[in-house]
């Protein structure tokens, strides 16, 4: 392992020599231990090493960026020169800047060194659990990794953050089979810093495997009706990503396409909804510690009790628009559980759909969305009647947030987020035989 501070010093010298006035740079070393399982059998164990160096330079209010994967003097010098050339060919904008000097920090997070023997045993145990409990599952691919990362951020204002982090990552890709009947592919994943529990107990792994088997038998969703859409934690991520992109992102605010542009401090959702970004939450595995702009990360609320608290803007967009910079650049999402058990939510639905995955195009600027409900189940008269296929759902993201029925008391913690099940009314659901 190379000395990252020595490399960073080399980068700083090269950037100034090339003509940078201000600059920031991140040096990263990664090590990944990986087991691969194909068709239910171990197919590969390998250790991967990866280096990366990211530079940003400002020259006369112009910005240049470059990334390379080598740390030697010749490669660093050439990259610095190319970074400056990139800046010089750009358009000047006084909104470009870097973070000011802050207190230097060193962070140690997660399981930096792996327990390979126990990791292997937990992986074998997971394979055995799947075979025993879910005999109809065909594991297309299982990737389990220990990811180790050492990184150093510096800028020419004197900010410096160093981080040592590591965690275990499990990713499954599978389908269910019975005779000639098969389901579409399902995916499920989780990350953890501990090997104390069987992997199948983490996140949504067990439930996703069960749902895949239940999807072997489908029921028709006939006609077109307005009903309730229950979002699983996995599909909640998909819908929240669209909401953030359409209404809160740098582009949406810069281009003034967000319908929430004048909604800061105002009610935009049901008062029971609070959406937070919490990199420091104990339930988030190795959350962000500093932003891509070089600021220390903080927990914050995007929406609190239905009221819009913050856009999700970087330093440039903040300087450009005058709106406050977001306190993180990551999406360590947390929505706390509500006061209604999941089974009670289902029991109260006359007609609706549980959406496991959404397949659709980018929603329009006003939030209208349309797509196919995948890995989904029909609910009628308070009961889950079966999996559905070829079923469309349509609605509007902004209106959806104001048509909340309930938030489940249960939450799913997969290491990357903490999310409940959420039920929304007035969603248009169209079956294959819809007129």
Tell me what the structure shows.
- The protein is α+β, with helices and mostly antiparallel strands and 435 residues long.
- Among the domains are: 4-210, PmbA/TldD fold (2-Layer Sandwich), CATH 3.30.2290.10; 267-334, no CATH class.
- It is 23% helix and 40% strand.
- The strands form three sheets. Strands 9, 14, 15, 16, 17, 18, 19, 20 and 21 form a nine-stranded mixed sheet that branches.
- A hairpin with a 4-residue loop joins β20 and β21.
- α1 (4-18) crosses α2.
- The longest helix has 18 residues, at 116-133.
- The chain is globular and about 70 Å long.
- The protein starts with a helix and ends in a 5-residue tail after the last strand.
- The model has no long low-confidence stretch (mean pLDDT 94).
Fold topology:
Layout: H1 4-18, E1 22-38, E2 41-59, E3 62-68, H2 73-88, E4 105-110, H3 116-133, E5 137-155, E6 160-178, E7 181-182, E8 186-192, H4 205-214, E9 224-231, H5 233-248, H6 250-254, E10 275-277, E11 300-304, E12 307-308, H7 315-321, E13 333-334, H8 342-347, E14 351-355, E15 357-360, E16 368-374, E17 376-380, E18 383-388, E19 391-396, H9 397-401, E20 404-413, E21 418-430
Parallel strand pairs: 4-6, 9-14
Antiparallel strand pairs: 1-2, 1-5, 2-3, 5-6, 6-7, 6-8, 9-21, 10-11, 10-13, 11-12, 14-17, 15-16, 16-19, 17-18, 19-21, 20-21
Helix pairs in contact: 1-2
Features:
single chain; 435 residues; alpha+beta; PmbA/TldD fold; nine-stranded mixed β-sheet; eight-stranded mixed β-sheet; 9 helices; globular
């Amino acid at each position: 392992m190379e000395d990252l501070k020595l490399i960073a010093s080399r980068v700083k010298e090269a950037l100034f020599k090339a003509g940078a006035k201000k600059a920031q740079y991140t040096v990263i070393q990664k090590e990944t231990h990986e087991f691969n399982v194909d068709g239910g059998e171990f197919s590969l164990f390998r250790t991967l090493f990866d280096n990366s160096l990211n530079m940003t330079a400002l020259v006369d209010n112009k910005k240049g960026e470059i990334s390379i994967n080598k740390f030697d003097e010749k490669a660093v010098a050439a990259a610095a020169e190319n970074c400056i050339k990139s800046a010089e060919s750009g358009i000047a904008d006084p909104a470009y800047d870097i973070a000011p000097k802050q207190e230097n920090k060193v962070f140690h997070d997660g399981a930096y060194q792996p327990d390979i023997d126990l990791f292997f045993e937990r992986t074998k145990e997971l394979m055995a659990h799947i075979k025993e409990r879910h005999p109809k599952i065909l594991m297309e691919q299982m990737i389990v990794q220990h990811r180790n990362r050492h990184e150093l951020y510096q800028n020419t204002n004197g900010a410096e953050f160093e981080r040592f982090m590591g965690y275990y990552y499990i990713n499954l890709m599978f389908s269910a089979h019975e005779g000639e009947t098969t389901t579409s592919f399902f995916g499920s994943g989780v990350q953890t810093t501990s090997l104390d529990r069987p992997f199948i107990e983490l996140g949504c792994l067990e439930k996703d495997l069960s749902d895949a088997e239940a999807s072997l038998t489908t029921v028709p969703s006939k006609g077109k009706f307005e009903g309730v859409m229950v979002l699983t934690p996995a599909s909640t991520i998909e819908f929240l990503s669209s909401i953030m992109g359409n209404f809160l992102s740098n582009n949406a605010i810069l281009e003034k396409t967000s319908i929430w542009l004048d909604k800061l401090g105002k009610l935009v959702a049901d008062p029971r909804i609070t959406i937070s970004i919490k990199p420091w939450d104990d339930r988030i595995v190795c959350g962000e510690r500093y932003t891509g702009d070089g600021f220390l990360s903080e927990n914050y609320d995007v929406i609190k009790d239905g009221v819009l608290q913050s856009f999700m803007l970087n330093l440039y967009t903040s300087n450009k628009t005058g709106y406050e910079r977001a306190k993180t650049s990551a999406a360590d999402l947390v929505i706390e559980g509500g006061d209604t058990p999941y089974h009670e939510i289902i029991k109260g639905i006359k007609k609706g759909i549980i959406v496991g995955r959404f397949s659709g195009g980018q929603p329009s600027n006003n939030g209208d969305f349309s797509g196919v409900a995948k890995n989904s189940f029909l609910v009628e008269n308070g009961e889950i009647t079966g999996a559905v296929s070829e079923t469309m759902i349509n609605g509007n993201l902004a209106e959806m947030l104001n048509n909340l029925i309930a938030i489940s008391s249960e939450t799913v913690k997969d290491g990357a987020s903490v999310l409940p099940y959420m039920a929304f009314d007035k969603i248009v659901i169209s079956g294959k035989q819809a007129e």
